[in-house]
Write the structure tokens for this entry.
Amino acid sequence: MNKKYRKAIIAGNWKMNLLPSQVKPYAEELRNLMPKSKTCEVALCVPFTHISTLRRSLKDNRIAIGAQDVSLYEKGAYTGEISAEMLADLNVNYVIVGHSECRQYHGDTDIDVGRKAAALLEKGMSPIICVGESLDQRERGLTVDHIRYQVLAAMSSIPEEKVRQCVIAYEPIWAIGTGKTATPEEAQEVCETIRAVIRSKSGARTARSVSILYGGSMNSSNAFELLSMPDIDGGLIGGASLKPSEFSKIIGAVAEVTGEEQK
Ligand code: PEP
């Protein structure tokens, strides 16, 4: 399917790494290293404590601000939680929901993921909705059914007119932080399935405009091959986003795929 209808996005997921005092030097280094691109949106999904410093350190809008989760609740007596409205007030653009680590450690269900995504959309932010199978599910041939179920369950809370503002990240659990990557063909098969699910639910126009990312040990050596696949529009990058030199090479791989001139 033609990639011109959707944004290429490279989003870093810092998880619980780097300190607030490291944000400014990181941002400066990345801004110096990263290729100028008209076709690739770059986002950094940082811990809540780092968002304001990142905003101040970026100076222009070449890098979008992201967070890593959001509360299910709007406001009130939810100690320790961060609402969609709070993130919108900090001008956050993207928020990861349904990361396998949040599903594992916080018990987020597919329905929670859809509700969180809907709360973000309501406040004008784009959710990055993560889906992915375990190794056991892959070995038992359940990958495609599982992903279809996860996407439909999340989508069931999202108003039809907001679907195109969603980003979906396919992150096989067995590939996250393990150094094992899905092959480009394996990742393409699942990303194509995700697009087909959106098409059957929301129509071809919406399906062709939703950006679908691959995540799971993506790095500067495997990014080009993965990003060359027709339904992979970008990457959600964990470990490799912690070093500006490595992250900027992944951003460069998008420019290589699209044939864009690099600086
Ligand atoms: C992630 O946690 O979203 C991720 C893809 O991590 P890594 O790149 O380290 O596998």
